[in-house]
């Protein structure tokens, strides 16, 4: 009789590894060259050491990607704005030197902002030069990291201090005005009154505030940014100590008083030139 015939089988133990967690892939194998022990190999086509799980340069820069909207004017962030010249087909006038980047075929030419070819800045006494942007591309505009605010006009009007104008559609009608008064730096405050249909980009130092015009509304001439075109502006001088007083300075500050019917407004910034 063959050995073991008709004899009961001896009980056998569980198979090796039964009830134990499986060994990790590659257990007992040497890691590939350049691979950290215990780390899974990168998928085929991905370089060794490339970050996985959404990390890396692309993920870090995702929040700063360009904002596409399909509109003519698009604010990329608080301090950068893009205009698409191909939408609307109208040229744009922008402060010279405010272009930080452009894409496509764009032509730049230079001109003065006033009827006499220039605007003298009320604080710097320098000429305000504008550049005319034409073409079928996109132009990104900014200046000194100031806050930018696109203001769209639909047949109405607004007055903006010339120092606070960054860019505007050439389709808008504009007129340069002087607000003269004793004590105003440079002898006068130059403003631009815009009217018609189009967009103006106003720049401010910090976040501005919009206030309604009342019979007792006064604003520092260096802090005022814009006001409704229907408001009446009166120069008023008051003596006080300025933060930037210097030897020989009288400390005299020029305030502008605003008057107008209900619905009129002024815009001021938390900054003085």
Quickly list its features:
273 residues, mainly beta, Double-stranded beta-helix, ten-stranded antiparallel sheet, four-stranded antiparallel sheet, 2% helix
Protein model, in words:
By secondary structure, this protein is mainly β. It has a single domain (68-268), classed as Mitochondrial biogenesis AIM24 (Double-stranded beta-helix). It has one helix and 17 strands. It has one helix spanning 57-61, and strands spanning 73-77, 80-84, 92-95, 99-103, 106-112, 129-135, 138-141, 147-161, 165-169, 173-180, 188-204, 209-212, 217-220, 224-228, 232-239, 252-259, 265-268. A hairpin with a 7-residue loop joins strand 10 (173-180) and strand 11 (188-204). The protein starts with 56 loop residues before the first helix and ends in a 5-residue tail after the last strand. The relative contact order is 0.13. Residues 114-126 and 246-250 have low confidence and may be disordered.
């Amino acid at each position: 009789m063959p050995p073991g015939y008709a004899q009961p089988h001896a009980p056998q133990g569980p198979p090796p590894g039964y009830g134990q967690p499986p060994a990790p892939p590659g257990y007992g194998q040497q890691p590939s060259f350049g691979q950290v022990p215990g780390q899974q190999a990168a998928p085929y086509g991905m370089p060794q050491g490339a970050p996985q799980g959404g990390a890396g340069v692309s993920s870090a820069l995702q929040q700063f990607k360009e904002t596409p909207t399909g509109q003519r004017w698009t604010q990329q962030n608080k301090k950068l704005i893009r205009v698409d010249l191909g939408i609307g087909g109208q040229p744009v006038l922008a402060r010279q030197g405010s272009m930080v980047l452009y894409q496509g075929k764009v032509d730049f030419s230079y001109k003065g902002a006033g009827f006499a070819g220039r605007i003298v800045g009320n604080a710097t006494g320098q000429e305000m030069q504008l550049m005319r942007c034409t073409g079928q591309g996109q132009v990104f505009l900014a200046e000194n990291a100031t806050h930018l605010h696109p203001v769209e006009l639909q047949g109405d009007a607004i007055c903006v201090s010339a120092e606070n104008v960054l860019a505007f559609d050439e389709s808008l009608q504009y007129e340069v005005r002087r607000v003269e008064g004793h004590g105003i730096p440079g002898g006068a405050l130059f403003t631009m009154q815009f009217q018609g249909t189009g967009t103006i980009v106003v720049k401010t130092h910090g976040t501005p505030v919009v206030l309604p015009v009342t019979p007792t509304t006064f604003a520092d001439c260096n802090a005022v940014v814009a006001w409704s075109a229907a408001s009446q502006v009166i120069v008023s001088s008051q003596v006080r100590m300025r933060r930037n007083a210097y030897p020989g300075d009288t400390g005299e500050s020029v305030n502008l008083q605003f008057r107008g019917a209900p619905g009129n407004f002024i815009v001021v910034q938390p900054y003085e030139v």
